[in-house]
């Protein structure tokens, strides 16, 4: 993760050297606690406990939070403005619907979707490549059963997405049985595509909200 988020790692270390606490840095950068801790754990600083320093830290934290919040809001507004035109494309609309149903909403700085259906993942991949800020930073993970052939699984997804199979990381399901007799289900595992992109995530939130509103406003005949 250090290489992927080099700028954030550098910022975390800079803030730590200035005396900010782990909690302060997490609030500012909006990254997982374990990640931030790993980045700064070797830096020993004396945290100033004076009231003046505490207030300065709070002011810095608030200013950075407001800055990133403003950028996220700008991206969200962009998403809302472009949604009517973008959603005219049925393929794009399908992607947004799929993300609404299957995509991860846990982190506001990450876009992530997982499925075992190759056509679903090809669609998601196409739009993530198109709108993500840097497709080279996409991460790929496959969750497999115990008796999956790892090389076969990697080759399958790599061929489907036209990517280098070495970019695909695998995770074994430790609590699962063997695949034998169940090959109709997740024959090639479950692929997850992830991208750390705060502003795409904000735009995607707007696209989903716009679509939700269309559904709410729609007149369905349930008779």
Describe the structure.
With 223 residues, the protein is an alpha+beta fold. The chain folds into two domains: 6-73, no CATH class; 89-217, 60s Ribosomal Protein L30, Chain: A, CATH 3.30.1330. It contains eight helices and four strands. It has a four-stranded mixed beta sheet with strand order 1-4-2-3, covered by helices on one side. Strand 2 (139-144), helix 7 and strand 3 form a beta-alpha-beta unit. Helix 2 packs parallel to helix 4 (51-86). The N and C termini lie far apart (53 Å).
Attribute tags:
223 residues, 8 helices, 4-stranded mixed sheet, 11% strand, alpha+beta, 60s Ribosomal Protein L30, Chain: A, single chain, 2 domains
Query: N- to C-terminal separation?
Result: 53 Å
Top CATH class of the largest domain:
Alpha Beta
The helix content is 55-70%
The string of secondary-structure elements, in order, is: HHHHHEHEHEEH
- The name CATH uses for the topology of the largest domain is 60s Ribosomal Protein L30, Chain: A
